[in-house]
Design goal:
Layout lengths: L6 H10 L9 H28 L4 E4 L16 E4 L8 E8 L3 E8 L4 H11 L9 E5 H5 L3 H14 L4 H7 L7 E3 L3 H16 L4 E2 L2 E3 L6 E6 L4 E6 L9 E4 L11 E5 L5 E6 L15 H5 L6 E2 L9 E6 L4 H18 L40 H21 L4 E5 L5 E6 L7 E6 L4 H17 L7 E6 L5 H8 L3 E5 L10 E3 L2 H7 L9 E3 L7
Parallel strand pairs: 6-14, 18-19, 19-20
Antiparallel strand pairs: 1-2, 2-3, 3-4, 4-5, 6-12, 7-8, 8-9, 9-10, 10-11, 12-13, 13-15, 16-17, 17-18, 21-22
Helix pairs in contact: 1-2, 2-5
Amino acid sequence: MDSGFRPEHFELLRRWRETARVTGNPEQDEAYAKLIDAYEATAKWARAVRDRVFPRGEVRKLSKPTNQAQKFKPYTWVRIYPWAGAPAGLAYTVGIDAGGEFCIKIDTVNLFGPQRERYEALRGPDHGTSPIAAILSEEVGLGMSFEQLVDWSVAQIARFQSSYDDVASELGLLAKGLRLVTDAAVSSEAFERWRDILLEQSPASGRVYRMRDHPVWFVTRDGQGGPELSLGLDPTGQEWAVEINAPPAPGDFNRLSAIGVDEAGGRYLLRQGWLRGRRPAPDIRAEFQSRTGLTAASVQGEGKAAEREWFVVANLDDVPARIRQRTAEFVELCWAARTPFTHDMPAASDGLQNGSSFEADGEKGGSYLLSARPAIDAKVVDQLHGTVWECLARVLAKHHVKYRKWRHARRYEIDMEVERQQGSHLLVEIKTGCCLSDVYSAVGQLEIYRKLFPQLANHQAVMLIDTPVTPFIRQAVEALDIVVHQYEWPKGADRKNVQFSEAFLQLCGVPQPSDVTVVQAHVSLTG
C-alpha cells in the first residue's frame, strides 16, 4: 500500500517554513492543500501504529499546516497516546520535517520550564542519537510501502531505551502509586492481553512455550479467574521460577497476582514478592527484595492486600515487545532468587542509575584478527544466541548443575551464571559474532561487571564464542582473567544443534566423559 507521502511534501515544508500564511495567494493555497494531504498521511500512519501496539490508545491530530502565529510549520506532527487518559503532556509522535526525515519519538506536548528541560536531557541533543527517538531519511522513507513504514515504526518503539511510563514518571506526569483492580472483568481482560502477547509467535515443544526473543519457557492453562502461567528458565519445563495466575477474586490479599492501575488509568501486571510452589527450594518471601534487587511499588488495596508487597512485572499498555522483555526480566530475577549458589553474597544497594549493559565500542571489521565470515543480520544473531543459551541450559539441567541468568534489577545483565561445587562460580557471556567488536563487547561486560558488583568479583569469567580466536587475541583476553572457549555448529546442521567442547563442559561441572557435547535446541526462536 502507498504510504501517501510524496517528495513534494518535503519540498513544500522546506519552501514555506516560517512563512506567514496569506489566504487567497494561489501558490500558498495550493501548498496549503497539499500539506493537508501530508497531515492526513501522517494521521493514517499514526492510526496504524496505534492499532498494532496500543489497542487502548488514542490518536490526536491537528490538520492545519500553520502554527498559532499563522506561519507554515516545517513539519507534520500527530500524537499517539498509549491509552485513553494517558497524560496529555506526553505522547508518541510521528511525522516528517523540512530537514528530510521521517521521525517517531516520545515527545512533550505544551510542557515548558523545568519539565521541558528535563525532557531535553532525557532525549539528548538530536533525534538521530536519542534513546527515545528514531529517524529515517527522506529517501529511505519514501521508498517504503505503508506496511513497511508501520513495521519500522513498531520496531523502533520497542527499541527505545525508556518506555512511555518511564519518561512520564521522570517528568512528574504520573504519580508512582497504583490501585488494585477489584473488577473481575477488567482483571480477566488484562490477564488475557498479557497471555496473548506472550503467546504471540512463541514456538512450543509439547505443552511448553518459549517466549519470543527471550530464553524464558512457560506453560499456560485457564483458571477460574482467567489465564494461569508458570514461567522459568528450564527448557524442559521441569522447574519453574514463578507462577502468575489471574485471581478469581481480584484484589484478594491471598492471591499472589493482580492488576494495578495508575491515576491516569494505565494498567500494570503485579506480583507479590512471595515465591512458592513444588520446587525443592524453600519459599522465598522475606528475602525476595534483597535477592532480586527489585523495589516494591506503592499500592493501595482493600484490607490486608494493601499490607502486602507488590512488584510491577510489566506495564500492560506498553508495546508488546517491551511487555515480553519486562516479563522475561522479572522471571529471570525470580529464577535467580530461587536458585541460590553456595557463598552467594546479598544483592548490593549500589545506587546505580537505570541503564543498559556496558559494551565496548570497537571497529566493525577485524577480519584480520578473527576468521572471515559473511555478515549476519542482527535478528539472526539474536536467534542463534538464543539457541546456544537453550542448548547449554539443557545440558546443565540434565546433569543437575545450577544455572541462572545474571541480571541486576536495573537491567544490567550477563548471559549466564553457573554454580560450581569446587572453585569459583562461572560468569558466561555468549557471543555469536563475526568481528572483533564481539570480543570487545564480551570483554567489556565481563570485566566491568566484576568491578561494579561485589557478588561477581570472584567469579571466573568465560567468553563463549563460535568464531576461532587467534592466539594473539586469546592471550590478551586471558590476561584479564577471562577464559575463552569456542562452541561449534555441526556441519550440515540447521543451526539448532550446538557442540560444546569437553573442556568447557568440564569447567561447568558436567560429568566426564560426556555424551552431551552435541545438543539440540528443541525449540528455536522465531523472527
